[in-house]
Write a structure and sequence with these properties.
single chain, alpha/beta, two-stranded antiparallel sheet, 36% helix, 18% strand, disordered N terminus
């Protein structure tokens, strides 16, 4: 089943280009059955509105917009964060948006959002209550238990889950995350550089987060793709089976590119990040530098 949508590329809130595209449901055929022309044209439209994006980021935005619920599994360093931010604001211009990520990445998400949307109301959750007026809410996995009830009371248009392999196993953080991403009306983008770290079973929760039909029954999934057997103590799901079929299924919801495929990347990009250093530490560092000058 497929339905039409309009790609809304913007610059400073003004629609500058429109192109009717096709979006599919999670159980639709793989994206190679989508019009290649559509993906190219959609990427071009994104590039017109966001000229600073690299070519692989533009095609990544087009892919996410074509799926609504998808996994972006590019190698580390290919700019998944910015790709997801652009896709989210194009998917649902009015927001609001929820970002779930490790604690160490919260401020990076805030910085990247402000680079795309200067002045946007971004709340980085810590101990303060959830602000229902925030356009972007950023929360780390370890804070989900504290804020889950308040977050569930809000209607997010897009939920982005960064380092999504963190929810591959049964855990409280996985359960909290899955509760927040389920639903037909919410677009879900999972970002990870390691979508299947060890075994096919690691993919089950990721597919569940996308409301994929294969994730309706873990038993059925395990029998089909994990060569599951009863070892006398329970179901052994450490194996793998029907991998070619599983690969085709994942191609329908996942986009993965290696750095070698991003031919438009410069050799290296360096960014200066200011940090606050306590006065005591600053004085200590100054003293150490002065002592080094005498060596």
């Amino acid at each position: 089943e497929a339905s039409g949508f309009t790609l809304r590329t913007r610059h400073e809130g003004v629609v500058i280009a429109r192109h009717t595209c096709v979006t599919t449901t999670p159980d639709s055929p793989a994206p190679d059955t989508l019009s290649a022309e559509f993906l190219v044209v959609a990427a071009e439209r994104v590039g017109e509105a966001y000229p600073d994006l690299f070519a692989h980021q533009r095609s990544g935005v087009a892919f996410l917009l074509s799926r609504r619920k998808a996994i972006l599994a590019d190698d580390m360093g290919l700019g998944k964060t910015r790709t997801a931010i652009v896709a989210a604001r194009e998917q649902a211009p009015d927001g609001p948006f929820l970002v779930i990520c490790p604690a160490t990445l919260k401020l990076n998400w805030q910085r990247e959002i402000h680079m795309i949307e200067p002045g946007a109301h971004v709340q980085v959750l810590a101990t303060d209550p959830v602000d229902p007026t925030a356009r972007w809410v950023i929360v780390n996995y370890d804070r989900l238990a504290k804020h889950k009830a308040a977050l569930l009371d809000l209607t997010f248009s897009v939920v982005i889950v960064d380092e999504a392999h963190a929810i591959k196993n049964k855990s409280a953080r996985a359960n909290h995350t899955l509760e927040l991403v389920h639903g037909d009306n919410v677009a879900t983008y999972l970002l990870t550089g390691t979508p299947m770290t060890n075994r096919p079973r690691d993919l089950y929760n990721l597919l569940s987060a996308l409301d994929h039909p294969l994730a309706r029954s873990f038993f059925s999934f395990a029998k089909r793709y994990c060569a599951a057997t009863n070892n006398g103590y329970g179901l052994d799901t450490d194996g793998a089976s029907n991998l070619e079929e599983l690969s085709q299924v994942m191609a329908g919801v996942m986009l993965r590119r290696a750095k070698s495929e991003a031919l438009d990347l410069p050799e290296k990009v360096r960014t200066w990040l200011p940090i606050d250093v306590p006065t005591s530490r600053s004085e200590e560092h100054t003293s150490e530098l002065q002592s080094l000058r005498h060596l």
